Amino acid sequence: MRDRLKSVSGKKTLVTGAASGIGRATAIAAARAGAELVLTDIDADGLAETVETIGRDGGKVLLSQALDISDYEAVTAFAREVHDRHGSLDVVMNVAGVSAWGTVENLEHRHWRRMVDVNLMGPIHVIENFVPPMIKAGRGGALVNVSSAAALLAFPWHGAYSASKFGLRGLSEVLRFDLERHGITVHLVVPGAVNTHLVQTVEIAGVDREDPRIQRYVKRFQTHAAPPEKVAQQILRGIEKNRFLVHTSFEVRFGYWWARKFAWPYEFVMRRANDLFDTFLR
Q: Which residues of the chain have pLDDT under 50?
């Protein structure tokens, strides 16, 4: 067994979704901790702003490129360039993701497809291309997969989103033990409410986003949401402490424990929550 990674300082670190939200905050936090960064996001302008911010603060970005992680060929070409120029990485962080909510009768096929393509197949494309070279290099390292509280609990309207995030959770559970013998730790981040741009842009099938009730709900959500900078620090701390499940809020930690210990009350609350959400439908 190799010594497990205790810090990203001096480590070649990939962060996907680095243009905004948790990805951007994590890239900046990792740079401040001394990581040498490889960054990507589908948003070229946002990615450039992140790179500029890191450079202005004295951080180091080895390479950045705008691409869609759901495009396997694009990820493969990017990985080839990274490895040709900088060798294998030490830390891989799958942060990029998208969201769409809705009941099964309102969700369209494009919603289901997009969730799986980006939230599940995207990280798989990254893992396929970057983790085997890490194994071959024999230096150990860390793999971080940002999932969601929706991978632990049955939130209303999250069918398509949870399908992708539960998949990423299952993948991480297996890789946790599969990669242990190579000295690569695996960390599953399960954020609850986080105040990112995604809150304002998430598509909700069958619901009018301009409905005052929806706007009040969004504002209430933002009031209780954690800033992405706090989540970024928890991710880095999760690596340092070698935590598999990285919770970003007490509510999610307690809710997951409660669901496992008290099945009937949990099911009762989920049914009531679904009834409440149905009042928002057109």
A: 1
